[in-house]
Design brief:
With 174 residues, the protein is an alpha+beta fold. The protein is built from four helices and seven strands, in the order E-E-E-E-H-E-E-H-E-H-H. The chain has helices at residues 81-86, 107-114, 137-154, 160-163, and strands at residues 8-21, 27-35, 40-42, 53-56, 88-96, 102-105, 124-132.
Length: 174
């Protein structure tokens, strides 16, 4: 069945405790999509397997601890003179697991978020990418392009390329 883009949200994800299968009231964990009328179904989109109706538990009370708030984003540090001497530096990011929300982080923020005991780890996927800074302009652009594509695939963070505005020469010095 076709739905206009303004009538459906796809590729949403629940880690549990929110949605339950209508048929047997079992907790649902996984991908789901939601229609404009509020109805939600299993699967990334209509036709992705068998789409079973799911609903929020009517008596569920959800409290979000302050630690679950979006990580504080401090603008990332720029490459240092040593980074330019090495020709590379690491860039740190997070992606919200159930949305196409990306942010760039500092190394300290990345380390705090990447701690698997951190509650935010369940909501935000931290990852990093090696970024080439110096060299032949086309080689730098190609390297950074392939770094992005590799990380998008291996870390399942599709959309990073668009978030970075396909600027493969950001911070480049020839």
């Amino acid at each position: 069945m076709y739905y206009p883009k303004n009538k459906i949200k796809t590729n949403l994800n629940t880690l549990g405790g929110e949605y339950y299968l209508v048929s047997n009231n079992e907790q649902y964990v996984g991908f789901y999509y939601k229609l404009a009328n509020g109805n939600a179904y299993t699967g990334r989109f209509p036709g992705d397997g068998i789409n079973l109706p799911i609903q929020m538990q009517p008596d569920a009370v959800f409290t979000v601890p302050t630690a679950q708030a979006i990580p504080t984003v401090i603008p990332p540090l720029y490459p240092t003179p040593d980074d330019y001497k090495n020709g590379m530096f690491n860039r740190y990011f997070f992606k919200k697991r159930n949305e196409y929300l990306f942010e760039e982080l500092t190394k300290d923020q990345y380390d705090k978020l990447n701690n698997s005991k951190n509650l935010l780890y369940t909501l935000y996927k931290p990852f990093f990418i090696q970024w080439m800074l110096t060299g032949e302009k086309q080689k730098v652009a190609d390297y950074n392009f392939y770094s992005i594509k590799t990380v998008e695939t291996t870390e399942d963070v599709l959309g990073l390329n668009e978030f970075l505005k396909m600027d493969y020469l950001q911070y480049y010095k020839g």
